[in-house]
Each structure stands twice: as structure tokens, then as C-alpha cells.
């Protein structure tokens, strides 16, 4: 009886929009798996499909085509898009006014809403509408400007040099990823809080140290968010084991964020006329449009969204470089030109003279983007691939899959940076294919900074070392909200002969 009621409700929901919209085939006719996928996961044994969204994405594409519908729960409809023209239609949708909406980080929304004494809003990741824009418009001022991002060059350059000076080559040979996590944490600590977390020190390598706990907590939170978002939300009724893990990891990030913000508040008390470059948190504290609760949320988000994303993306980047000797040699020759001396500083001018390095980064992001695609909630009834998709439908673009299809790229599985150096008007790929940092107003707020930091690491590492891959024959990934390498980043680093 209950099953029939669920089915009847879902069918009514699916059919409802077609009484008002014309111009395409009915929404219910979009091909896709039957049943309620989130409910099915409750009873499925073995690995979850959420751990390998790229695998299930390819399967859906080959079985159903360029548009796929599934129903995780009664009344909740998700459409997967593989066609870049459909992706462009959705990402350019203005049905929600100037505030693109998405359904994401629902557990984080609950966690922060349960703590109004600490957070004014759930933050940039789960929030939608005008509340989202009020926060975004204030915090992006100090992160998105190209000139402000370039002003971070000196600090990041120094931290990266220090990282390479202290890098243990045996650790790199076993797995470079944990070392990259410490590098990115150190960069976040200094740029956001003007604090050296000393992540490379022996003391901070202890499992119970502040650095180790932050790295572990960020990874744990990110690994919990996707299954909490996509499965039946029992955690809203009682605290499930998965939500408990998420809550405990968030409490670690929150505790350090509170400590560092409080420290900065004390430093600024009676010292409002500080001269020189200010940290991001200091700029936010001076912004009258932001409350302290907004700033604590942003501080925690720096750790949550900043450590894993750049760490995993850098790991894939170095994987590709270490497996392609010809690419690495071309890259080294370019690095030599901008850094004749290994210890020279990387300047703004250097970044203007590295077209091949930028092509290498872009090719790595094509094959291994930060996530599978971009999420949106349709703001208006929209025709996609000939089907009328109703307002309120959750859309997940499948850019990762689309970027590996031969219809869009020649020999798409090959790592070929040169494809980005020979682009003409007739050969340029669709602009809505490679979107590793999202799109439009809801794109990654720190995109330029992340790209700059990865370029700095790549230039310095390749200039100093020859990289040789020692890991698995082909590196796959786990879709833990952020695409994570499936095995250790085992790279042999051999110091180049100085001339």
C-alpha cells in the first residue's frame, strides 16, 4: 500500500508540469533507471555507486543517452546532462533571477542552522537566494580580483620553496598526496589568517597535532557530504553514524576557525591602523557588512573547501606530468626560461611567459576536474534535448564524462596539452565542456588563487626535480564530493643537475 502511494505521488509530480508547458516531449519520457535510487541504496550490499560516479555516469550515458532522469526519492527528480548545449542552457538559466540555485551540502546546512550562536547562515556552499548573494558579494572582493590574487605571489612562493626544501623524498616516493595536503593547509593558514601553522614540522606531523586533525577533518567532512546529500535523509530524524562522523569532523574545523578568528580579533583591538598587506580574515573583520558569525563560517569553509580540492587536483596534475616524459621535458625547458636560477622568485612576468605550463594544467583539469560536474536547480521550465524539464528539477551536468568523449575531443583519453595551444575559432571545444571550477556567479570563489598556486608548485617542482611515476599503471579516482585519487601518488623525485 505504501509503495503504491509513493508511486502515485511521484507520477502526479512528474505529470503536473505538462499541463502548462509545451514545446517538447513529456518529462516522464526521459530515459533513466526505474525505482527510487536513494531508497535502493539502503538495501544494496557492496560499494556504493556514489563512490564511482564517473563509472555510473558512463554506464548511464551508454545505456540511456545524453539526458538521463532518475528519482532518488518520491518528489525529488534529478536530471543528468551530457550534451554541452544542454549544459549551456541550464547554466545560463535566469529563472531564479540573479541567484543561481543548487541543492548541495544539506548536512552542512543542518549542522550550522543548529548552531545559530556560531553561524548566521549555513555559508556559501548550501545557501541559495538573496541570503547567498549578500554573503558572496562581500567575501569575493578579497578573493576573486586578479590583482589581489597576484599580490599573494610573494607569500605563496616563499611557502612553496620552504615546502620543497623540507620535502622528504622517501615520503614522496610512497605517497606525495599527504605532503601536498600540508602544503595547501600552510598556504590557507597564512593567506587567510596570517598564521604559520608549521604544517611541515615534525611536531605537526603527529596524528593528534592541529595540522593533522585539520587535514583529517576536512577529508572526513567531504567524504560524508555526498552520501548524506544523495541518500534517504534519516539523519534529520535521528543522528546516524554517518552524520555523527560529519558532525565530529565539523567540530574540529569549527574549533580551529573560532580560535584563529578570536586571535585575529585580539590582534586588531586597538590596532586599526595596521600598515601593509592584510589577511583575508582581517579584511573581513574590517567589513561592516559582515558579522563575526559570517566570518567564522568563512574561516571554517577555507579548510573544508580549500585543502582537499587543491590537494587532489595537484595530485592528478603531477601524476600526468610524471607519466609523460615528453610533456615533462617541454615543461622543464619552459620553467628554465622563466627561472634561470632554481631559487629565483616567480613573478607576475613569469606567469605571463608559461603558455605550456598553463596548457598542462588545463589538460589535467579536463581529464581530472575537481568534481563530476555542476549542480543547479532549474528556475524555469526548460526544454533540454527535446524534453520539457520542469522548474525545480535538480540538474547535475556530467562534464567529466563529456570531456572524455571522442565527439568532443580527439583521442580524449590521452594527455595532450598541445591541444590547448593550437585552438582556432573552428577547432575550439564547446565553452561549457571544461568547467573544473563551476560556472558563473556560483563558480569557485578562489579559482584564480587555486590555479596560481598549482602553477607555482608545478614550475618549482619540475624546475628542481625530474618526476617519475612509480604508482599503479592507471590512476583512477573515488568521487568523494571532490574527485580523489584512488591510489597513492607514488612519484620518484630526482634532483636535476645544477648548471
Could you outline the blueprint of secondary structure elements for this entry?
Blueprint: H1 2-15, H2 37-43, H3 53-64, E1 67-73, E2 76-81, H4 84-91, H5 106-113, H6 129-139, H7 146-150, H8 153-166, H9 169-174, H10 177-193, H11 210-230, H12 241-268, H13 280-285, H14 292-323, H15 325-338, H16 348-351, H17 355-367, E3 375-377, E4 382-384, E5 387-389, E6 394-397, H18 399-402, H19 447-464, E7 465-469, E8 477-480, E9 482-485, E10 491-495
Parallel strand pairs: 2-6
Antiparallel strand pairs: 1-2, 3-6, 4-5, 7-10, 8-9
Helix pairs in contact: 8-10, 8-19, 10-14, 11-12, 11-14, 12-14, 14-17, 14-19, 15-19
Structure description:
The N terminus is likely disordered. The protein has 19 helices and ten strands. β1 and β2 form a beta hairpin. It is globular and about 65 Å long. The strands form four sheets. The protein has a four-stranded mixed β-sheet, sandwiched between helices. It has a two-stranded antiparallel ribbon with strand order 4-5. A two-stranded antiparallel ribbon has the order 7-10. α12 crosses α14, α14 runs parallel beside α19 and α15 packs across α19. It is of the alpha+beta class and 499 residues long.
The CA-CA distance between the termini, in Å, is 80 Å
Overall 3D form:
globular
> Taking all residues together, what is the mean pLDDT?
91
**Tally of alpha and pi helices:** 19
Order of helices and strands: HHHEEHHHHHHHHHHHHHHEEEEHHEEEE
Reported for the largest beta sheet, the result is: 4 strands, mixed
Cα radius of gyration in angstroms: 23 Å
Binned, the helix content reads 40-55%
Structural class: alpha+beta
**How much of the residues is beta strand, in percent?**
5-15%
Overall number of strands: 10
Strand order of the largest sheet: 1-2-6-3
Low-confidence stretches: 1-20
Amino acid at each position: 500500500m505504501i509503495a503504491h502511494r509513493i508511486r502515485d505521488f511521484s507520477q502526479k509530480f512528474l505529470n503536473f508540469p505538462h499541463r502548462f508547458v509545451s514545446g517538447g516531449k513529456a518529462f516522464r519520457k526521459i530515459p533513466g533507471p526505474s525505482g527510487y535510487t536513494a531508497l535502493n541504496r539502503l538495501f544494496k550490499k557492496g560499494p556504493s555507486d556514489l563512490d564511482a560516479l564517473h563509472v555510473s555516469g558512463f554506464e548511464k550515458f551508454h545505456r540511456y543517452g545524453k539526458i538521463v532522469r532518475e528519482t532518488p526519492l518520491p518528489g525529488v527528480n534529478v536530471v543528468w546532462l551530457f550534451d554541452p548545449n544542454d549544459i549551456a542552457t541550464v547554466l545560463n538559466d535566469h529563472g531564479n533571477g540573479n541567484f543561481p540555485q543548487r541543492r548541495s551540502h544539506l548536512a552542512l546546512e543542518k549542522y550550522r542552522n543548529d548552531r545559530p550562536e556560531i553561524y548566521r547562515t549555513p555559508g556559501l556552499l548550501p545557501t541559495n537566494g538573496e541570503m547567498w548573494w549578500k554573503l558572496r558579494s562581500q567575501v569575493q572582493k578579497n578573493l576573486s580580483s586578479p590583482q589581489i590574487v597576484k599580490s599573494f605571489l610573494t607569500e605563496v612562493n616563499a611557502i612553496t620553496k620552504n615546502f620543497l626544501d623540507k620535502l622528504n623524498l622517501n615520503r614522496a616516493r610512497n605517497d606525495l598526496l599527504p605532503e601536498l595536503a600540508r602544503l595547501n593547509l600552510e598556504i590557507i593558514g597564512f593567506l587567510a589568517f596570517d598564521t604559520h601553522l608549521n604544517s611541515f614540522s615534525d611536531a605537526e606531523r603527529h596524528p593528534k597535532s592541529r595540522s593533522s586533525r585539520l587535514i583529517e577533518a576536512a577529508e572526513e567532512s567531504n567524504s560524508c557530504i555526498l552520501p548524506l546529500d544523495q541518500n534517504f535523509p534519516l539523519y534529520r530524524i535521528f543522528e546516524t553514524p554517518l552524520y555523527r562522523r560529519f558532525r565530529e569532523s565539523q567540530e574540529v574545523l569549527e574549533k580551529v576557525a573560532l580560535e584563529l578568528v578570536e586571535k585575529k580579533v585580539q590582534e586588531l583591538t586597538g590596532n586599526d591602523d595596521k600598515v601593509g598587506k592584510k589577511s583575508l580574515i582581517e579584511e573581513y573583520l574590517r567589513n561592516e557588512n559582515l558579522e563575526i558569525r559570517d566570518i567564522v563560517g568563512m574561516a571554517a569553509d577555507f579548510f573544508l573547501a580549500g585543502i582537499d580540492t587543491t590537494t587532489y587536483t595537484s595530485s592528478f596534475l603531477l601524476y600526468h606530468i610524471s607519466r609523460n616524459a615528453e610533456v615533462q621535458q617541454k615543461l622543464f625547458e619552459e620553467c628554465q626560461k622563466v627561472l634561470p636560477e632554481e631559487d629565483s622568485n616567480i613573478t607576475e612576468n613569469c606567469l605571463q611567459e608559461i603558455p605550456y605550463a598553463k596548457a598542462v594544467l588545463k589538460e589535467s583539469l579536463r581529464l581530472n576536474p575537481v568534481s563530476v560536474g555542476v549542480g543547479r536547480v532549474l528556475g524555469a521550465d526548460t526544454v533540454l534535448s527535446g524534453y520539457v524539464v520542469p522548474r525545480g528539477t535538480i540538474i547535475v551536468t556530467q562534464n567529466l564524462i563529456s570531456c572524455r568523449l571522442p565527439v568532443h575531443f580527439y583521442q580524449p583519453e590521452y594527455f595532450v596539452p598541445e591541444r590547448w595551444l593550437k585552438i582556432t575559432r573552428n577547432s575550439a571545444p564547446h565553452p561549457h565542456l571544461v568547467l573544473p571550477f563551476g560556472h558563473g556567479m556560483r563558480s569557485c570563489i578562489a579559482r584564480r588563487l587555486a590555479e596560481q598556486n598549482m602553477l607555482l608548485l608545478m614550475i618549482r617542482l619540475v624546475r628542481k626535480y625530474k618526476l617519475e611515476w612509480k604508482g599503479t599503471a592507471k590512476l583512477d579516482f573515488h568521487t568523494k564530493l571532490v574527485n580523489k585519487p584512488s591510489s597513492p601518488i607514488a612519484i620518484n623525485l630526482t634532483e636535476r643537475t645544477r648548471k
